[in-house]
Automatic annotation (TrEMBL):
Entry keyword annotation includes Cytoplasm: yes
Xref: InterPro entries: IF-2B-related, IF-M1Pi, IF_2B-like_C, Initiation_fac_2B_a/b/d, M1Pi_N, NagB/RpiA_transferase-like
Residues with site note (Transition state stabilizer): C164
Domain of life from the UniProt record: Bacteria
Function: Catalyzes the interconversion of methylthioribose-1-phosphate (MTR-1-P) into methylthioribulose-1-phosphate (MTRu-1-P).
UniProt name for this protein: Methylthioribose-1-phosphate isomerase
Keyword Transmembrane helix: no
EC identifiers of the protein: 5.3.1.23
Single biological process term from Gene Ontology: L-methionine salvage from methylthioadenosine
Annotated positions binding substrate: R53, G54, A55, R90, Q203, N254, K255
GO terms for MF: S-methyl-5-thioribose-1-phosphate isomerase activity
Enzyme class (EC, first level): isomerase
Length: 369
């Protein structure tokens, strides 16, 4: 998508052909800085410290991390070490393991001397595939927005609520939840996005607002607790969020607070959609609430906030009393019964076991092996 008229992706292979460039998302919205990843450890740290984040981008970074690892040591133990280092970088987004499994399936059977080149080629494919998948999500999600337009009075704006950042910054390009929004905007549909700030790391306020603003999509940042009020007053036509893992039964794991938005949407008859690329489905997990691991992050994300001061400096301040314990669960699970539909590259699906399995038979077969 565009940053002030110039097209950007969140991650790319640098001109030298081997190092990897990525936007440092910890510095947005205040500074646009590109980081250079030159080793498997760099990639693992970038994922762990959230220089890159968002399930599909975590997967893409891990794929390039494997390629960087193969330059360092392409032996069988080197391959095993790289996989083990990267797979534990963050626990909840299944795209990480999916990408590493794809890389390993390509690399394990071939001669170690060929592995580095093959790894870059496969990582590039994973990256391009992400963009293609998101184009599919855009087209399928657009039909939902167009159906709302058809019901509205001429000239009225479609209001979408989203949580966290499931935008192009969280993927390679387009985003998942934002893909239909960008396409609708491109088609001239009047669209406005309510952006949940998404405490504690504020991915909505810092990242979604930044990318929508730089692409020219009308939006308003709201405190996390505002969504229910807006829904009660008819100010939200539909909610679209992303996800880090969808269980085989259609339960959806996403950034903490998503579940509360789904409850409010249910109570107010607001359609609640989840946009996802198929690598986010985990057919090995039967019940999302019981079995998806929920990352717990540092308490400093809750106690501290960073922002720009009036004189232009970045400063971190404490907002919680010294000594008060805090809890920082990074994700929650929304039960399938609260989800109106899953927007995938193969259509808008019912959030249930049969629909997921029918749409992605090759994935169910693979997970049974
Ligand atoms: O902790 P984060 O910022 O990686 O969490 C991101 C989300 O929760 C996104 O909604 C999810 O990864 C989907 S991104 C297309």
């Amino acid at each position: 998508m565009k940053v002030d008229g110039k097209h950007f992706r969140s991650i790319w292979r640098e001109r030298d052909g081997w190092s990897v460039g990525a936007i440092d998302q910890r510095r947005l919205p205040h500074e646009f800085i590109v980081a250079k990843l030159t080793s498997c450890d760099d990639a693992a740290v970038a994922i762990r410290d959230m220089l890159v984040r968002g399930a599909p981008l975590i997967g893409a970074t891990a794929a390039y991390g494997m390629a960087l690892a193969m330059r360092e040591d392409s032996s069988d133990p080197g391959l095993r070490r790289a996989y083990a280092t990267l797979v534990v970088a963050r626990p909840t987004a299944i795209n990480l393991k999916w990408a590493l499994d794809e890389m390993r399936a390509t690399l394990a059977p071939i001669d170690p001397v060929e592995r580095a080149e093959a790894a870059y080629a496969r990582a590039d494919e994973i990256v391009e595939q992400d963009v293609e998948i998101n184009r599919g999500i855009a087209a399928n999600g657009l039909t939902l927005i167009e159906a709302i337009v058809a019901k509205k009075k001429p000239g009225e704006t479609v209001n979408v609520l989203t949580h966290c950042n499931a935008g192009w910054l969280a993927t390679v390009d387009w985003g998942t939840a934002t893909a239909p929004i960008y396409l609708a905007h491109e088609r001239g549909i009047r669209i406005h996005v309510w952006v949940d700030e998404t405490r504690p790391r504020n991915q909505g306020a810092s990242l979604t607002a930044w990318e929508l603003g730089h692409h020219g999509v009308p939006h308003t940042v709201i405190p996390d607790n505002t969504g229910g009020h807006l829904m009660q007053h008819g100010m939200v036509d539909l909610a679209i969020v992303g996800t880090d893992r969808v269980a085989a039964n259609g339960d959806v794991c996403n950034k903490i607070g998503t579940y509360l938005k789904a409850l409010a949407a249910h109570d107010n008859n607001v359609p609640f959609y989840v946009a996802l690329p198929s690598p986010t489905i985990d057919f090995a997990v039967d019940d999302g609430i019981r079995d998806i691991p929920i990352e717990q992050r540092s308490g400093t994300e809750v106690t501290d906030m960073t922002g720009r001061t009036a004189d232009g400096r970045l400063e971190t301040v404490r907002i919680v009393p010294e000594g008060s314990p805090v809890a920082n669960y990074a994700f929650d699970v929304t039960p399938a019964r609260l989800v109106t539909g899953l927007i995938t590259e193969r259509g808008v699906l019912k959030p249930d076991r049969a629909s997921l399995a029918a749409a992605f038979p090759e994935r169910t077969a693979a997970s049974a092996e």
